[in-house]
């Protein structure tokens, strides 16, 4: 008994060290910009850098646009598949998993070929066009996470019966989707949204090859030029990611609460 | 003209005929139960009335309006599901108000109607709760209130009680019936529980394999089952084989002992037919002036609380009969010879 407990603790401690040591080291390093004293100077420099601000804001907007488009595509699709086309579920699932199988670099090369200036839809010709292409690319990239989350959420409620109950009360399907289905999978959508957010904020390949100034390429740029600032940036990115995870936990907890209660 | 007319509807899923040529006329204010074993197509009939399924053949009219292919949302029907199906994200009051909001009623009117409905189902204080804060029985009452709030033309209930435990099932059964009477709403109730169907309904539709086996009042269904299926599905019953002696004189034999029936059996002399007897229609000893008497041997006794179910053997056939469990009377000994008696009225002749 005692022994196995000890072993378990040892494993936990080793694991924690494995994950925490680089983090602590990076953090410690990021504080050493000023000689002989710890300071947040590197953070100050990074955060006050207008390029950082614009890159981060840009990524933020992209993430939000991606989330909105993703929800608009995924929620009705998952609803329809669950309700009317359950046989299609494996097909849809396979399609949503494709972005995990096909490397981003291949997808983006495909995009560039398809939508270049001499193509039928020259999206890359204008900035706006490229931004649209980028956010749709991100929608595809985050599809596995968004679809999974929404699908799981829909499975946890009785979509069929709730829909029929609403129909018998006179509701048409936009109303049903908006006021019955959506509120009941809100936490699932939220987790999908956070995962999408994390994906978009850290994405490099698409942005770099489409030559858009997002956070990813900025991080790479700073990393190539500076010493302490990249460490600070890494910590900032890490905090953002963990904040997302934390929010996800909260949302997940809310979902469990609702489901447990629903019985 | 009946209020709800189901004319020769059938439903096929591919080659699988699930409902076959069902004809049903339901009067305004009537409470009808669809009763039958699992998979006999009760739910499918109900779902066609609701508009969740389209019949492969036949038409459905409500109040002389053909609704066969009309969208559910425009049918104005109320539906209560087995799985409660309250909207988990809305309070009880908002659940009840849902249909009214869609119908575009004023908020003052909605408020009044919600309060009225909560009173109707005797849960006036629960408006602010969420469904997960309610018991199963309470949820089902709210589901009923929600369905009735829109003043539907027809109320449809698909096994609304089967997820509840026995006590609540009985009390809610009575409550549904009293609400239904109060509002005079035409109701179709689906169940596989014969007691539920018999105790609640004006008329019962017994279904088997997608067909109507028998349609009648609970008393008719129980006392005069027309087919073997109905006889065996509704209540406990002994099915015996009898031989026709004289059809016109209504004389037969059961295990070579003469008996009389009330109705003439169809068939030639010497033909074997099926007859049925309810356990409660048979008594031990005490023959009456016109009663049928059979000599038999007691082979088993089952104690069921207020009654004892006795199995007697007559020739090669076993017959079940019920005796009241009185403290005075002693049960017959197993193996003893007895005479069992029943009235000609109680001998049910089965057509199939
Ligand atoms: N969508 C469907 N596709 C194919 N077959 C179906 C479908 N819905 C129902 N069935 C079949 O139709 C038959 C009747 O189903 P129905 O649900 O009406 O039975 P039921 O009498 O309500 O039974 P239960 O008491 O179990 O609810 C069943 O054999 C069922 O398998
Ligand atoms: Mg059913």
What's the arrangement of secondary structure elements?
The complex is a heterodimer of chains A (263) and B (352).
Chain A: H1 2-30, H2 41-48, H3 50-83, H4 89-101, H5 104-114, H6 127-155, H7 159-168, H8 173-184, H9 186-202, H10 205-209, H11 215-225, H12 228-262
Chain B: E1 4-13, E2 16-26, E3 31-35, H1 42-50, E4 57-62, E5 65-66, E6 77-80, H2 92-102, H3 107-120, H4 136-149, E7 154-158, H5 166-183, E8 186-191, H6 194-200, E9 203-208, E10 211-216, H7 218-223, H8 228-233, E11 238-246, E12 251-254, E13 257-260, E14 272-277, E15 283-284, E16 292-303, E17 307-314, E18 317-324, E19 337-342, E20 348-349
Parallel strand pairs in B: 3-8, 3-9, 6-7, 7-8
Antiparallel strand pairs in B: 1-2, 1-4, 4-5, 9-10, 11-12, 11-14, 12-13, 14-20, 15-19, 16-17, 16-19, 17-18
Helix pairs in contact in B: 2-3, 2-4, 3-4
The structure holds adenosine-5'-triphosphate and magnesium ion.
Name some characteristics of this structure.
heterodimer; A: 263 residues; mainly alpha; MetI-like fold; 12 helices; disordered C terminus; B: 352 residues; alpha+beta; Rossmann fold; OB fold (Dihydrolipoamide Acetyltransferase, E2P); 2 domains; 6-stranded mixed β-sheet; 5-stranded antiparallel β-sheet; binds adenosine-5'-triphosphate; binds magnesium ion
Order of H and E elements of chain B: EEEHEEEHHHEHEHEEHHEEEEEEEEEE
Radius of gyration of chain A: 22 Å
CATH class category of the largest domain in chain B: Alpha Beta
N→C terminal distance of chain A: 36 Å
**Strand residues, percent of chain B:** 25-35%
H and E string of chain A: HHHHHHHHHHHH
| CATH-derived architecture of chain A | Orthogonal Bundle
Low-confidence stretches of chain A: 259-263
Low-confidence stretches of chain B: none
- The name CATH uses for the topology of the largest domain in chain B is Rossmann fold
User: Which percent bin holds the helix content of chain A?
Assistant: over 70%
The CATH class of chain A is identified as: Mainly Alpha
- Largest pleated sheet of chain B: 6 strands, mixed
The number of helical segments of chain B is: 8
- Taking the alpha carbons of the first and last residues of chain B, their distance comes to 31 Å
Oligomeric organization of the protein chains: heterodimer
The overall pLDDT of chain A, averaged over residues, is: 86
**Structural class category of chain B:** alpha+beta
Bound compounds, please? adenosine-5'-triphosphate, magnesium ion
């Amino acid at each position: 008994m005692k022994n196995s407990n000890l072993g378990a603790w040892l494993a936990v401690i080793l694991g924690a060290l494995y994950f925490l040591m680089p983090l602590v080291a990076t953090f410690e390093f990021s504080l050493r910009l000023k000689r002989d004293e710890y300071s947040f100077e590197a953070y100050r420099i990074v955060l006050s850098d207008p390029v950082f601000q614009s890159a981060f804001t840009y990524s933020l907007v992209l993430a939000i646009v991606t989330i909105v488009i993703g929800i608009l595509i995924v929620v009705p699709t998952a609803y329809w598949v669950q309700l009317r086309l359950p046989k299609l579920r494996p097909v849809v699932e396979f399609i949503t998993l494709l972005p995990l199988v096909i490397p981003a670099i291949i997808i983006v090369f495909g995009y560039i070929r398809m939508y270049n200036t001499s193509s039928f839809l020259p999206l890359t010709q204008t900035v706006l066009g490229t931004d649209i292409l980028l956010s749709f690319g991100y929608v595809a990239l985050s599809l596995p996470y968004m679809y999974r989350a929404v699908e799981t959420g829909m499975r946890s409620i009785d979509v069929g019966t709730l829909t029929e109950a609403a129909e018998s009360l006179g509701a048409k399907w936009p109303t049903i989707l908006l006021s019955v289905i959506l509120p009941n999978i809100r936490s699932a959508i939220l987790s999908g949204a956070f995962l999408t957010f994390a994906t978009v904020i850290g994405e490099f390949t698409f942005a770099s090859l489409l030559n858009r100034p997002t956070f990813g390429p900025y991080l790479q740029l700073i990393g190539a030029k500076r010493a302490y600032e990249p460490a600070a940036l890494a910590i900032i990115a890490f905090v953002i990611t963990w904040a997302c995870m934390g929010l996800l936990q909260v949302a997940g907890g809310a979902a469990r609460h609702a489901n447990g209660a629903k019985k | 003209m009946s209020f709800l007319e189901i004319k020769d509807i059938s439903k096929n899923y591919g080659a699988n005929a699930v409902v076959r040529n069902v004809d049903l006329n339901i009067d305004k204010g009537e409470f009808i139960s669809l009763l039958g074993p699992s998979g006999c197509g009760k739910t499918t009939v109900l779902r066609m009335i609701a508009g969740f399924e389209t019949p492969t053949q036949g038409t459905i009219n409500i109040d002389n309006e053909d609704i066969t292919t009309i969208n559910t949302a425009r049918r104005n029907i109320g539906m209560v599901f087995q799985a409660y199906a309250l909207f988990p994200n809305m309070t009880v009051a908002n659940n009840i108000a849902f249909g009214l909001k869609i119908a575009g009623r004023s908020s003052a009117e909605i408020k009044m109607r919600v309060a009225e409905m909560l009173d109707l189902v005797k849960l006036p204080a629960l408006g602010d709760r969420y469904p997960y804060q309610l018991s199963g029985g309470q949820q089902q009452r709210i589901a009923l209130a929600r369905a009735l709030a829109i003043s539907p033309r027809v109320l449809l209930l698909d096994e609304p009680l089967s997820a509840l435990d026995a006590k609540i099932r009985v009390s809610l059964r009575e409550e549904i019936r009293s609400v239904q009477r109060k509002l005079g709403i035409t109701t179709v109730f689906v169940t596989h529980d014969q007691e539920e169907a018999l105790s609640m309904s004006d008329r019962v539709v017994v279904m088997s394999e997608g067909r109507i086996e028998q349609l009648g009042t609970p008393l008719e269904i129980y006392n005069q089952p027309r087919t073997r299926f109905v006889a065996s599905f509704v209540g406990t019953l002994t099915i015996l084989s009898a031989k026709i002696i004289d059809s016109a004189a209504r004389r037969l034999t059961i295990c070579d002992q003469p008996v009389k029936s009330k109705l003439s059996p169809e068939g030639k002399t010497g033909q074997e037919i099926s007859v049925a007897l309810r356990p409660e229609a048979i008594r031990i000893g005490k023959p009456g002036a016109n009663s049928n008497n059979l000599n038999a041997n007691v082979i088993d006794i089952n104690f069921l609380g207020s009654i004892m179910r006795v199995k007697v053997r007559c020739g090669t056939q076993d017959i079940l009969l019920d005796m009241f469990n009185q403290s005075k009377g002693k049960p017959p000994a197993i193996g003893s010879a007895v005479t069992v008696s029943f009235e000609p009225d109680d001998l049910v002749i089965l057509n199939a």
